[in-house]
């Protein structure tokens, strides 16, 4: 079985034990043995990054742009191969996985361009004979901690801007999906990233993640994952004075109004709730439907969900891949049971057997639910969605906003009046009109409000807010 090591100080390094990377569509398919670092190895990576920072922070922007462009070009050229790896290790269907790999390639190319666009401002001083310059500098060594559900795109949208703006990186991917993380490290290495500028430390959150958070060598942390872990990290970063960016969970509403085009609404809901096996922070988990369209929408949803083909992620007919692992599967089943206990009607949601042993689950629709139920307050992160019936737009908006989360909010309507009112009043970082709540562009800001996000936005030009720090210089020539 092939072994994959960590990349520390420019060297592929054995750093503790190895773990098997297992395919959730077929538990007999082991993708490889991947290093699982201990705290000592994490320490070496942080030391290497700190050593590399002084020269990388003033490196030529052309050098940075060239390296990022090479990586982006390589990912795009090999996106079928990386998509296959992603589908094998995470369980997304092959088209979804190839799409995600392509997006990662575009992100690297986008930030290759951003490296060339680092600009400041020059202003007059209120004092005669004095000039003021506002410039941007890298933050330092950035710790990047990512979840399992977008194993190539999320690392790309953190690593590429970090490097573009002159920071060094210590990257800890989720323990469940080391394959795509290793592939990115390999491409950066091949593209000639200088020793120590980028370090890959695969390993557990409780070991490597905590070491990164605690280390005085780390100046900033970009984290995506659960609210519980994010908040724990936030407390320590506040105590240690580290810059922090958190992207966490969601309980995203998709409002369907009486005047919605039924086909558009059902397509948006099916895509938003079930695609990528519902394992998206932007998934549409609460379908808030007004009374006039409720019955027609519910019937059409039940029918569409029942038709979805669940199977092996690499099977061309599959529309919904397996759940990522046993622990997530148990969580999904727990919430389906809870839905019944809370007196919701449950359509679907059964365990499925397929030719290969894997974590197959039928999409679930919870009907006759209220927004007060736990199934509508807590993030499930599986292929399930609830329908909440409301009387009109005003109640729909109130229900949509009645959540601790605020990542994405969607509305299906043909009324410009309601669409624009919703755009202004939805308490979310992103709003979708007649579209699924999931599925975003790579060149515009991504992030939420309330318990969903903390700190500056990710992606697009806004990424510079986190990955740079501002210096104000007063000059008396
Ligand atoms: P976790 O919070 O469990 O893990 C996220 C990352 O943090 C993993 O790499 C994990 O390592 C690491 N980690 C765990 N404990 C610590 C610790 N004490 N210190 C430092 N790092 C630690 O989330 P999941 O990976 O399970 O992802 C699912 C969750 O992420 C969902 O709640 C989902 O909503 C959210 N999410 C949010 C997104 C957003 O952009 N808003 C996008 C994607 C997911 P290890 O793998 O070893 O556990």
Structure overview:
With 477 residues, this protein is an alpha/beta fold. The longest helix has 22 residues, at 94-115. It has a seven-stranded mixed β-sheet, with helices on both faces. It has a six-stranded mixed β-sheet with strand order 10-9-8-11-12-24, with helices on both faces. Strands 1-5-4 form a three-stranded mixed β-sheet. The protein contains 14 helices and 25 strands. The chain has two domains: 3-248 and 452-475, Aldehyde Dehydrogenase, Chain A, domain 1, CATH 3.40.605; 252-433, Aldehyde Dehydrogenase, Chain A, domain 2. It is globular and about 70 Å long. Helix 2 (61-77) runs antiparallel to helix 4, helix 3 packs antiparallel against helix 6 and helix 4 (94-115) runs parallel beside helix 5. The structure holds NADPH dihydro-nicotinamide-adenine-dinucleotide phosphate.
**What is the first-to-last residue Cα distance?**
65 Å
Overall shape: globular
Mean pLDDT: 98
Radius of gyration of CA atoms, rounded to a whole number: 23 Å
CATH class descriptor name of the largest domain: Alpha Beta
Structural class: alpha/beta
List bound small molecules.
Answer: NADPH dihydro-nicotinamide-adenine-dinucleotide phosphate
Q: What oligomeric state is this?
A: single chain
Reported by name, the CATH topology of the largest domain is: Aldehyde Dehydrogenase, Chain A, domain 1
The CATH superfamily name of the largest domain is: Aldehyde Dehydrogenase, Chain A, domain 1
């Amino acid at each position: 079985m092939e072994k994959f090591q960590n990349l520390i100080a420019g060297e592929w390094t054995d750093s503790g034990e190895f773990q098997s990377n297992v395919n959730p569509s077929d538990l007999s398919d082991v993708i490889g043995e991947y290093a699982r670092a201990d705290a000592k190895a994490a320490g070496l990576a942080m030391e290497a990054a700190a050593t590399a920072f002084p020269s990388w922070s003033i490196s030529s922007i052309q050098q940075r742009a060239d390296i990022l462009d090479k990586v982006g070009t390589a990912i795009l050229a090999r996106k079928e191969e990386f998509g296959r790896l992603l589908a094998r290790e995470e369980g997304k269907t092959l088209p979804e996985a190839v799409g995600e790999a392509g997006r990662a390639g575009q992100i690297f190319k986008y930030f290759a361009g951003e490296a060339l666009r680092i600009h400041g401002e020059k202003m007059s001083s209120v004092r005669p004979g004095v000039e003021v310059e506002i410039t941007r500098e890298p933050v330092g060594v950035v710790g990047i901690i990512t979840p399992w559900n977008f194993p190539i795109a999320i690392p790309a949208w953190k690593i590429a801007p970090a490097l573009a703006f002159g920071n060094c990186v210590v990257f800890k991917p989720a323990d469940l999906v080391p394959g795509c993380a290793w592939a990115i490290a390999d491409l950066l290495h091949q593209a000639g990233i200088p020793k120590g500028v980028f370090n890959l430390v695969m390993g557990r959150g409780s070991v490597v993640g905590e070491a990164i958070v605690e280390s005085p060598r780390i100046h900033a942390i970009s984290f995506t994952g659960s609210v519980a872990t994010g908040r724990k990290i936030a407390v320590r970063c506040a105590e240690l004075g580290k810059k922090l960016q958190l992207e966490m969970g969601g309980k995203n509403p998709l409002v369907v109004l009486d005047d919605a085009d039924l086909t558009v609404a059902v397509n948006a809901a099916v895509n938003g709730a079930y695609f990528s096996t519902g394992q998206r922070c932007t998934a549409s988990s609460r379908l808030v439907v007004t009374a006039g369209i409720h019955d027609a929408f519910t019937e059409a949803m039940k029918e569409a969900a029942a038709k979805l083909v669940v199977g092996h992620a690499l099977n061309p007919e599959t529309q919904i891949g397996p759940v990522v692992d046993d622990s997530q599967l148990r969580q999904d089943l727990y919430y389906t049971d809870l839905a019944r206990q809370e007196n919701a009607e449950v359509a679907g949601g059964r365990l499925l057997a397929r030719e290969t042993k894997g974590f197959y689950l039928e999409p679930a629709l919870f009907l006759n639910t209220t927004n007060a139920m736990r199934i509508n307050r807590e993030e499930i992160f599986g292929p399930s969605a609830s329908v909440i019936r409301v009387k009109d737009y005003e109640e729909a908006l109130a229900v949509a906003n009645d959540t601790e989360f605020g990542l994405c909010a969607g509305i299906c309507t043909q009324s410009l009046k309601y669409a624009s009112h919703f755009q202004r009043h939805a308490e979310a970082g992103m709003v979708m009109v007649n579209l699924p709540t999931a599925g975003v562009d790579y060149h515009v800001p991504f992030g939420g409000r309330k318990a969903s996000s903390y700190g500056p936005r990710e992606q697009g030009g806004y990424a510079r807010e986190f990955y740079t720090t501002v210096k104000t210089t007063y000059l008396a020539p």
